Amino acid sequence: MANLVYKRVSTNQQSTARQDLVLAEAGIEDPVVFEEEPGTSSRLHPLQRAKFGELLTYARPGDTVHISEMFRLVRGNQHILDVLDVLHRDRLALRIHDGAFSAMDLTARHPRTGELLSTVKFMVQTLAAAGELQRDLQRELTYDGLRAAEAKGSKGGRRPAVVAEKAGDVRTAYLEGRSIAALARDHGVSRGAIRTAVADLLPEHTANEVDVPAPELPVTLDMPGKVADYLRTTELEPAERAVLDQGVAVRRGQGYTLRVSAVPAVHRQLLARCQPLDGGQGLPTVPAQRKARHEYENRVSILAPIGP
Question: Are strands 3-7 and 31-35 parallel, antiparallel or unpaired?
């Protein structure tokens, strides 16, 4: 008997991270996953959705349909009853792993008539009506809040997006460990705007990309002072200049090292920038500088490689 997993999100900005967590905790064996295209509205009847249709075509009697919570599959009262009828017709079980419906056997039928048990039907209708009431109240409260804000002179609508000139700074700061909430405050935009600006750097994005590594985390390395002094005199990218400026100097006898925190890719870029310290290309070789560069190279070389 197969375990069929169904997932759906309502907008392109949402992810299935929460659903994935609930389903993973359920310990489903050998799941066959059917995931709707992002932005599939809950208003569309489940029986008209592409992936749920594929699931029903794939299913065989005795299989179990798994969802994280009922409202990932259905919203309205009639939708629920329609889906339960189809599952009963195809002799499929339904397992809901979170929310009010998780404690109920929604497929329970009268042993003689085959009709949905009256108690189950009553609970389904009651909980579905409660869900619709909650959404209606949220819409009413949102409307009242907007009217109150307009009366005070506030303008409604979305907060501005990150302007193109600032996008590079936002991405650099995010890679250096600045949180999305802090970046939103710094630039006077919503967290959603920041997420849009760094969308390809987010863990949930890279986890879904084939052969794309997860974002690198900052690593702290001690850069010899002679290397740091040389790099400060060269032309650097903004991200490279930023990590040098934020480095902490640590005295070492007559010299010093600069404690630099950066993602491995930036450390490798800085290492490449100080290649001239090895001499060649008409430049004189200074043994102390060459030694310093080799020390930094040894520290960078132990970082995980970028890819295969």
Answer: parallel
Helix H or strand E encompassing 24: helix 17-25
CA neighbor of 256 nearest in space, from 280, 232, 237, 284? 232
**C-alpha 129: how far from its chain's center?**
32
CB 244 within 8 A of CB 258: yes
The phi-psi region of residue 46 (left if phi > 0; otherwise alpha if psi is between -120 and 50; otherwise beta) is alpha
Contact 22, 68 (CB under 8 A): yes
> What would the pLDDT profile of 68-93 be if each residue is shown by its tens digit?
988 888 776 778 788 888 888 888 88
Express each pLDDT in 190-226 by its tens digit.
Answer: 888 888 888 877 765 544 444 444 556 778 888 999 8
DSSP one-letter code for 11? S
Neighbours of 302 (CB within 10 A): 9
Q: In Å, how far from its chain's centre is CA 130?
A: 30
